[in-house]
Amino acid sequence: MAERKIQDLFGKPIEVVNMGLATMVEPLKAQNVPVADVDWRPPKDGIKHLRFLKNGRSIDEANEEAVARIKKARPVLIGMGLAKDVIPGYKPNLFLHAGPPITWERMCGPVKGAVMGALIYEDMAKDEAEAEKIAASGKIEFAPCHHYHTVGPMAGVVSPHMPVFIIENKAFGNKAYCTINEGLGKVLRFGGMGPDVYAKLKWLQTDLYPILDAAIRSLPNGIDIKALIAQALHMGDECHNRNRAATSLFLRAIAPALARTSKDNESLAKVIEFIDKNDHFFLNLSMPAGKAAVEPAEGIEGSSIVTVMARNGTDFGIRISCMPDRWFTAPAGMVQGLYFPGFSEKDANPDIGDSTVTETAGYGGFAMAAAPAIVQFVGGTPQDAIATTLEMYEITFSEHEGFTIPVLNFRGTPLGIDIRKVMETGILPKINTGIAHKNPGVGGIGAGILRAPEKAFRDAFDAFSQLCK
């Protein structure tokens, strides 16, 4: 029987947006009908729409203030420094990690691997066996990156002598920090260990960091990271798992300063080559830019906007604007994605990393419609990427006019995850992310997509409800 296609009156294939009817999808796909599958469902029974606090304050007005502060943010790269010297409150034995608080005993394999690798990098341990003993001894203080105005991709480990980028939000004066992106594969942030891992980290500290820092500090106005993100969204990036255009834009912005400040052409060439070959280099700039943008929205009475969304490979956690010091957690989910050759789901660690700060700030996975080619890295189809962004408008309070999506007629990206809307619609934030091997020392094994766990949002909503009429 000849293959049939559903057509309109003009003989053109019909493109379908499927709203939550799972049984409709496969028959349409079997007939080669382009389908954008939106995970929509009717509002949940028993979820009250919260409008006012007990003192009469309007929740919508509080949320307007929160998103206005995020939109007003102007994150600028102003320099670099060693973590111990520039991150406020840093202590000699402090090691930061991604996600909500966690003890050594509960840490997943990649975080344990990154901690042990960092101890060797810091010359605090001679090998992995000694590093494991030190990490478990209580001599090391562990804390979330988010508690120190910092963000870390994947395992997120930051140790005292690691160079970090310094991002200043020029609109509010607050700063955020992040380490240098090492690339993909067997690297520390994925829990990788070994001589090659430590050698690269040392090179980042002794060679790349001084050259890059000198160039950045020679620029009187720094580098406007918000402007680069806005441009990259028009060039096929979403600035979480696709940063190819943004990395190129950054290299173009810094290149003249590099040439003027570096005295060693060969070292300079290696720095440029490293950035050029690492398409994820910009991730470690887009993340602290998001952190710097969102932090001023913390502490607004009555705001139900999510200001932190992070994972440590064991737990997923969020914090909301009106309760900036309280974590709401749930078990981290498993990523559905594409794997590097030789690896599969059985090798994967649960969801991990602070990189969901990008979605919290209005780009990343929420802007997937701007980056259809990302599906080659995380799986799915270009239609899925568009459907993801359209769906996220349902759970966000506003749209970010500073970040627009060409394919959606330059509509602003979804901004301000509202726990009320998450609970009312039953739609959970959609995240695209890397995948780390579950065992220490292996590293990255792929990338994919998953939903944030409902429990964290339900608990936050229940706690928020106690403040309301």
Summarize the structure in words.
The chain has 469 residues and is α+β, with helices and mostly antiparallel strands. The chain has 3 domains: 1-38, no CATH class; 47-69 and 301-465, v583 fold (Alpha-Beta Complex); 74-290, Enterococcus faecalis V583 fold (Alpha-Beta Complex). It contains 15 helices and 17 strands. The N and C termini lie far apart (63 Å).
Computed over alpha carbons, the radius of gyration is: 22 Å
The third-level CATH topology of the largest domain is Enterococcus faecalis V583 fold
Query: Could you say which structural class the secondary elements and strand pairing correspond to?
Result: alpha+beta
Number of strands: 17
Overall shape: globular
**Can you identify the CATH class of the largest domain?**
Alpha Beta
The average pLDDT is 92
Please give the alpha-carbon distance between the first and last residues. 63 Å
What profile does the largest beta sheet have? 4 strands, antiparallel
What number of structural domains do the residues give? 3
Name of the CATH homologous superfamily of the largest domain: Enterococcus faecalis V583 domain
What is the helix fraction of residues, given as a range? 25-40%
Q: What's the architecture of the largest domain, going by CATH? A: Alpha-Beta Complex
- Subunit organisation of the chains: single chain
Task: Kindly report the spatial arrangement of strands forming the biggest sheet.
Answer: 7-6-3-8
The parts where pLDDT drops under 50 for at least 5 residues are 1-11
Strand content: 15-25%
Question: How would the blueprint of this fold be written?
Answer:
Elements: E1 16-19, H1 22-30, E2 35-38, H2 59-72, E3 75-82, H3 83-86, E4 94-97, H4 109-121, H5 128-136, E5 141-144, E6 163-169, E7 175-179, H6 195-217, E8 223-224, H7 225-233, H8 244-261, H9 265-277, H10 283-294, E9 306-312, E10 315-320, E11 323-331, E12 336-339, E13 352-353, H11 357-360, H12 375-378, H13 382-392, E14 396-405, E15 411-417, H14 419-425, E16 430-436, E17 444-451, H15 454-465
Helix pairs in contact: 4-5, 4-6, 6-8, 6-9, 7-8, 8-9, 14-15
